[in-house]
Design a protein that fits this description.
The complex is a heterodimer.
Chain A (H helix, E strand, L loop, with lengths): L3 H7 L1 H26 L9 H12 L3 H30 L14 H4 L1 H19 L11 H11 L1 H9 L1 H18 L8 H29 L3
Helix pairs in contact in A: 1-2, 2-4, 2-9, 6-9, 7-8, 7-10, 8-10, 9-10
Chain B lengths: L8 E10 L8 E11 L4 H14 L22 E2 L2 E2 L21 E5 L8 E3 L2 E2 L2 H10 L19 H11 L6 H5 L6 H12 L8 H14 L10 H5 L7 H16 L4
Parallel strand pairs in B: 1-5
Antiparallel strand pairs in B: 1-2, 3-4, 3-5, 6-7
Classes of the chains: A mainly alpha, B alpha+beta.
């Protein structure tokens, strides 16, 4: 017999609530990640960034946080595939001619595609800087690794290009998550929309600023 | 379109979905109508098509219809890829042929969702909605004398919101328009109209749990908050109701007394 928790999480609304909570958690991670990366711009020698990277990597809680973060990602991704498959099955034979009624946005209609592209980017990004990261004593090398990766044409295209699907994904994500959690009120609906799109732009442009700076700024 | 002396008569090419039964593959059939009046409703235009087909000794097209005044929720159709046609907030029976042009080609498809199997041609079985209602969309009342009017006080705000939700005619257009064939707008309207009123309070938790459970069991999709349902709804039901449904469901699941 199903317990109430199992029943809730297996329901359509429960799955969407899990998607929303994990998604909001990942947005929180992105904001923290961006804030940390911005130390790259603090000085030209990369001292602030090295200090940040050393502090972060010497924190004994980091492995626990990494496991938690991995679980957040996995839950979000697995649920996304499950929900998408169910949604396709729910339609069955599709329409021969389909014209939208005008409510869909580029972000909302492409959540699965942008999600997969972001996942592909994360794999590359993890290979670049997580599995290949320097020892704690040599953390000063990291800023240089970032620079050499992002200033090359391929690195630039990957790191700049990936911010397009990320921005699109986030443009629908925030307001959709709040709606799923039932947070909808005439007093705040406009604010939620503006904050959602603003967050998407800030996070997207923020991360895009690194490949832009290294590729076009060169070593000057 | 100006009303010239000959403009009331239109020639149309119709691509109509024909399907013998739920298990038939189905296909489009092309028909030409040469004398369609702009004053006809879309369903009257189909009536003309069916007369033409009958006169030719062919099977008429099966389509759902009943009141033909926009309140019963029986008519359906996806017309040129849009649920209930191109005009917002009306049903197919309220759509008039003056919204089309002479020489137009019109694609007519049934509502498509696994939970709404096609009975024949354009007619779909939407009894999944009836089963969602049966699972909890009701209130318990004492029999006997009618209670005093206004014995139960309802705020104007709540009365208005409940009335707006109750405007849902259960046509299934939300499911047809939803990219995921989800039934969240319908279920949320039916849960909301009762959750907003004191009469709905005794079954509040049990209702939302049962109706969402039935909705999932029928095989509808999951909501991705694209609001296409709201844009397609002939009665303008708002996705605010979906947020309320989510709240009601979480409240009942996490802290509700009913199991």
């Amino acid at each position: 017999m199903l317990s109430w928790l199992q029943r809730t999480l297996r329901s359509s609304i429960g799955k969407k609530v899990l998607m929303a909570c994990t998604g909001l958690g990942l947005i929180g991670f992105l904001i923290g990640h961006l804030a940390g990366n911005l130390t790259l711009f603090a000085d030209s020698e990369g001292e602030a960034f090295t200090h940040y990277a050393t502090t972060l990597n010497s924190n004994p809680a980091l492995p626990v946080v990494e496991v938690g973060l991995t679980l957040l990602f996995l839950a979000h991704i697995v649920l996304a595939f499950k929900v998408t498959r169910e949604n396709r099955e729910a339609r069955g034979k599709g329409y021969t001619l389909r014209n939208d009624h005008g409510a869909r946005t580029p972000g909302s209609r492409s959540m699965m595609i942008t999600g997969v592209l972001i996942l592909a980017f994360i794999v590359v990004h993890l290979i670049d800087f997580r599995f290949d990261k320097p020892e704690l004593e040599e953390m000063s090398l990291l800023a240089g690794m970032v620079e050499s990766r992002l200033s090359g044409t391929v690195g630039f295209l990957i790191y700049f290009g990936a911010m397009v699907p990320l921005t699109l994904h986030l443009s629908h994500a925030f307001q959709s998550a709040l709606q799923t959690l039932g947070l909808n009120h005439p007093k705040y609906n406009c604010l939620i929309k503006v904050v959602g799109r603003g967050l998407a732009l800030i996070i997207g442009l923020g991360f895009a600023s690194f490949p832009l700076a290294y590729f076009f700024g060169g070593n000057a | 379109m100006s009303a010239g002396h000959d403009s009331s008569s239109m020639k149309l090419t119709l691509h109509v979905w024909r399907q013998k039964g739920p298990d038939d593959e189905g296909r489009f059939e092309i028909h030409r109508l040469n004398d369609v009046s702009q004053d006809m409703s879309f369903l009257e235009m189909l009536d003309v098509l069916n007369e033409q087909l009958t006169n030719e000794g062919r099977e008429p097209v099966v389509f759902d219809h009943d009141c033909r005044e926009g309140i019963c929720g029986m008519c359906s159709l996806v017309i040129n890829g849009q649920v209930h046609g191109p005009v917002p907030e009306i049903t197919t029976c309220q759509l008039h042929m003056r919204k089309f042009n002479d020489g137009d080609t019109i694609y007519i498809e049934p509502f498509r969702a696994k939970a709404f199997p096609i009975i024949r041609d354009l007619a779909t079985d939407r009894t999944a909605f009836d089963r969602i209602i049966q699972s909890g969309g009701f209130v318990s009342v004492n029999t006997g004398n009618a209670p005093d009017a206004n014995a139960l006080l309802v705020s104007k705000q709540n009365a208005d919101e409940a009335m707006d939700a109750a405007a849902c005619i259960g046509c299934g257009g939300c499911v047809a328009a939803c990219p995921n064939a989800a039934a969240m707008l319908f279920t949320s309207a039916k849960v909301s109209q009762l959750a907003l009123l004191p009469q709905g309070a005794p079954e509040r938790d049990a209702r939302v749990l049962a109706m969402v459970g039935q909705m999932d069991a029928e095989g509808f999709g999951n909501c991705t908050n694209e609001s296409e349902c709201q844009a397609a709804c002939p009665k303008g039901i708002s996705v605010t109701n979906i947020a309320r449904l989510n709240r009601e469901y979480l409240r009942a699941s996490l802290v509700g007394k009913s199991q």
